[in-house]
Amino acid sequence: MDALAAVAREPHAPFTIENIVIESPRVGEVLVEIEAVGICHTDLAARDGALPTALPAVLGHEGCGVVREVGPGVTKVAPGDRVGITFNSCGRCPSCTAGAPSYCHQFMHLAYDGTRDDGSGPITTEGGERLTGMFFGQSSFGTHALAFERNVVKVPSDVPAEILAPLGCGLQTGAGAVLNSLNCTPESSLVVAGAGSVGLAAVMGAVVRGLSTIIAVEPHASRRELALELGATHVIDPTSGPVPEQVRAILPGGVDYAIDSSGVPAVIESLLGSVTFHGKIGLIGVPADPEASIPLTIINTLAMGVTITGIIEGDSVPDKFIPELVSLYKAGKFPVDKLVTAFPFAKINDAIDAQHRGEVLKPVLVHS
Questions:
Q1: How far is CA 331 from CA 40, 105, 206, 322, 336, in A?
Q2: Nearest-CA neighbor of 276 among 190, 335, 351, 349?
Q3: How many helices (DSSP H) and strands (DSSP E) are in the chain?
Q4: Which of 325, 348, 368 is nearest to 360 (CA)?
Q5: Domain assignment of residue 324, yes or no
């Protein structure tokens, strides 16, 4: 079918709005008419060559829309159903069968290669040029996306699409880091480094879980203010002094949990000095420099029984966790609306520029 998409053709270059052609869904596939799609740092990392996704490509991996057609064998959804689209997983590997699809053994292939198992792809230009598609099993920077039965989740019709879309990746990652990955206990303490949309989702998850001390570390004053509005009990400006000292001025013994959403080695090192004995540190952010390292002072921290764990997609089982987040939003306990700014789909480059300037936290593209 004919569709419209934002195409990434060159690293660090603006997206171009182009006419494309999408194949009809094959076995297990679902064609979705996109209502809204969030813009995530991962999309830009793929465009700019930091991830192994071949250009030109249609990116986008936080879609929300209405099912228009399903392929053979699909029973989970039907045409007319409204769905959120999340990360894909194989459903067959040891992680998937153990209920941990975000650690699917095929994650890299399913997220970044943009092909089916047979090497085919579903998207071309009008002139027949092949475009990398199926990014994270969706490529939702367009009017339509071809997804899979495994990575679509039914969502209600009475919640705005711009609220539902970012639940597919960034917000479920932040909230899931607290509620699933670290499984923070009520009345415990947490420090979150970085008050972007992922970090603030972690703050909101901590409020939901009932933590007693929630500290957000963020250099931008407006984001610190928003963190307090969302339920952080304390905020720290890292430019005002060493973070461990500031954290221990609040809790002299250190915090029980720490989450990094920045991927900056110096920030991660500061968290190592902020946790207490048997503390747990969750790493969400991916370092921009793959050669980055942390000094061997980490050994002193590990001697305190500290656990450091990497976190992918907040250890979410999307069919269960996304509906939970929707219910929390509808109950006023997960105020996604305070993070999101909607832009017309055609203004994708303006939305990215606004995010880069720090004017918006979570830009979401909407189709009128």
A1: 26, 36, 16, 14, 12
A2: 190
A3: 12, 18
A4: 348
A5: no
Within this chain, do residues 208 and 296 fall inside the same structural domain, yes or no? Answer: yes
Give pLDDT, residue 265: 86
**CA nearest to 293, candidates 262, 269, 260:** 269
Q: pTM higher than 0.85 for the full model?
A: yes
Residues 153, 273, single domain; the answer is: no
Tokens of 228: 């307090």
Task: Establish if 345 belongs to a structural domain.
Answer: yes
Domain harbouring 300, CATH code: 3.40.50.720
Angstrom distance (rounded) from CA 196 to CA 211: 20
Number of domains in the chain: 2
* Partners of residue 4 on adjacent β-strands: 19
Name, in order, each residue with C-beta under 8 angstroms of 183's C-beta and a sequence gap of 6 or more. Answer: none
Q: Does residue 361 sit within a domain?
A: yes
Helices 265-272 and 243-250: crossing angle, nearest 10°? 40
Task: With respect to residue 328, please indicate whether it lies within any of the assigned structural domains.
Answer: no
Instruction: Say whether 19 sits in a helix, a strand or coil.
Output: strand
Summarised one tens digit per residue, pLDDT across range 205-252 is 999 999 999 999 999 999 999 999 999 999 999 999 999 999 999 999
DSSP code of residue 286: P
Residue 295's pLDDT is 63
Give the C-alpha separation, 29 to 137, whole Å: 10
Q: Are 269 and 295 in contact (CB under 8 A)?
A: yes
On whether the CB atoms of residues 196 and 223 are closer than 8 A, the answer is yes
Per-residue pLDDT of 170-203, as tens digits, reads: 999 999 999 999 999 999 999 999 999 999 999 9
The answer on 20 and 163 residing in a single domain is yes
238 shares a domain with 148: no
Contact 143, 135 (CB under 8 A): no
| 159 and 230 belong to one structural domain | no
How open is the CA angle 341-206-337, to the nearest 5 degrees? 15
Burial class (CB in 10 A: 0-12, 13-18, 19+), 176: buried
The domain of 238 spans: 174-311
Of 254, 267, 175, which is closest to residue 219 (Cα–Cα)?
Answer: 267
Length of the chain: 368
